[in-house]
Amino acid sequence: MIKRNAISGYKRAAMLCLLITAVVAGTYAQTGGAKSGGMNTFISNLMSKMTLEEKIGQLNLPSAGEFTTGTATNSDIGKNVKEGRVGGLFNIKGVDKIKAIQKVAVEESRMKIPMLFGMDVIHGYETTFPIPLGLSCTWNMRSIEQSARIAAVEASADGISWTFSPMVDIARDPRWGRVSEGNGEDPYLGSQIAKAMIKGYQGDYSQPTNIMACVKHYALYGAAEAGRDYNTVDMSHIRMYNEYFPPYKAAVDAGVGSVMASFNVVDGIPATGNKWLLTDVLRKQWGFNGFVVTDYTGINEMIDHGMGDLQAVSALALKAGVDMDMVGEGFLKTLKQSLEEKKITLAEINTACRNVLVAKYKLGLFTDPYKYCNDQRAKTEIFTPEHRSIARRIAAESFVLLKNEKETLPLKKTSKIALIGPLADAANNMAGTWSVATVQDRSISVLAGLKAAAGDKAAVLYAKGCNLTEDAALEERATMFGKTLNRERDTRTPEVMKEEALKIANEADVIVAAMGESAEFSGESSSRTDLDIPGRQQDLLKALLKTGKPVVLVLFTGRPLTLNWEQQHLPAILNVWFGGSEAGAAIADVLFGDVNPSGKLTMSFPQNVGQIPLYYAHLNTGRPLPEGKWFQKFRSNYLDVSNDPLYPFGYGIGYSAFTYDNLSLSSKSLKGNQTLKASVTLTNSGKYDGAEVVQLYIRDLVGSVSRPVKELKGFQKIGLKAGESTKVTFEITPEDLKFYNSQLKYDWEPGAFEIMIGGNSRDVKKEQVNWTK
Length: 773
Ligand code: BGC
Hints:
By secondary structure, the chain is α/β, with parallel strands linked by helices. The strands form eight sheets. Strands 11-16-15-14-12-13 form a six-stranded mixed β-sheet, with helices on both faces. A five-stranded mixed β-sheet has the order 18-26-25-20-21. The longest helix is centred in the N-terminal third of the chain and has 30 residues, at 2-31. Helix 22 links the parallel strand 15 and strand 16. Among the domains are: 385-603, Rossmann fold; 658-772, Immunoglobulins (Immunoglobulin-like), CATH 2.60.40. The protein binds beta-D-glucopyranose. Beta-D-glucopyranose (BGC) binds at residues 69-70, 120, 164, 216, 295-296, 524.
């Protein structure tokens, strides 16, 4: 009886909502809804009926605890939902569970306000795409957008309305485990990817397959000192604006619905309590009109940052511009008291509450709180053959061929292959870090992929060869959500395992070594100081090489590794990151040449850890090395290693060779708003059809502040048949020359510029122009 009343009560409220929102909902979809009067009136009406506690309740985001990245636990969620103390919930998977909780919110709570259901849908839902660092190496914005679109289709079919993605933190220190979750070192590329992801997730919010994105971690999280997760960040404003802020701003420009504050300090104040960051820059300078959520217990962690007790840090966060408190319940527990003590204002609570309600409105939850709970869709739209085949194509596109001597690759399907390594038969490790919705062991392993592709033509022999590392304790620390995904440690002695591997290696025509890091070695709280392939695996590689058989390293990693030995000695290295659900199938596609690899690195690979941070867009210094030298006394260099990366940003080869000729400029002297056209002739001079990422870099030779030696300003991924040539043209306008000067004014300065085009950041053709105002 109570239930029925509740339902009809909800229906009455919903009808009212419908009356008010039906008209605006239609226009909302077309206009993006930013200034819809209907929405504002609706929310004002709603808020006029809410108690203070209910308003504070909207700011509370507990974790349902199915996957955790922290330690705090929330108080009774069911009771809190019923009593109007929860605005959203995350870390919960499954449409039935979500529907049941939504039902309590909209039928049993007094205000019947629907909840947001969030999840870290980072690189796919059940159909898992490559880890973001891998995805970025496709340099294909259509593929990246499509991956986000499919993630949104699947997540929305399963009850999720909000994803904590994209992560766009610029990262130049591969010791930091979370480089795997981002798009590498470059602000321009990172900005393009941010836009593509948001478009893929959010669309225009008009469809039940559009979910809200959350750009993170605002800001500068990727610059943690020494690559140690959560560590201090300290940088100049000019660097923030020119190098670290652009992808967040691009996300705001693309209409991202929410922003997650980062864990680190910015200018000495934790981002979560930093008003300059969350209000002055984000809202006033960039015009952000969505809502800000903390990271997991971000408010509580300000106590450890030394900013005061729970009440003080909660007030600090609210006043800085935080709208929603993830997990820590600081808002829930202290805002009322802070209001009574006049430490915060009602207007501040109202603003935060309104921002959260606007998000729910934009998503259409007031019109249909079950918009994302469609059992039928959940049964038919998740992990579909179509999604999987797209994931397979995109995975192959993310692989970066680092070396291929004497045409070791592609392999013949008729060869006898010895597949060896701890990651060769590790289906549950293929999805990589932050793949919470993935059914891990449903992914395709390398062994399964090779066998399926070769059919009965090739013989694929397999041996594990060794455990991932020698150090069982290290392996135990490396977990994802407290779980290890790969490893039953093999209890046989290293000698016995090696012997088994050498036996099949000696029988084979070629050795494929599936080695590197496991998925749990990168991601959150997974920083490393040693970036070599773990020793035990290297020993095995050396032994395999001694057989005299060609060794192809299929490298799994969530970060740039130091691969000097491998580069020197192995004939072929294919970096496959973590390719997602279809990893093994995609690896087979590339190894057998059904797909010609076209990925290019988005993070420089250092020669050794001592060079870090190492990135292509560095300043020149007053004592740069003369070109062609790697050491000179009293110059900026090291005694023991050159300044060069092992593999530069933008690098990656394929089975074809691409040549660049005839860099030509439409003019060498330009004025004002003219457009410069820069072209090259690109030729596929190899025997395979393939695709090449043509990259445009610019250097501003003279400025009021020192400018980087190169900055990426454009790229095009061009497909060419073997033997074919084409002219590739970039258009450059003064917009591409702009930067933030020491007054943080965004403008361009006249003078000389180098225009460079090439297939990576090192090997470029260049010309100079003069551009006056
Ligand atoms: C991570 C975020 C993530 C959040 C929720 C945190 O520990 O830093 O990236 O979105 O947990 O799972």
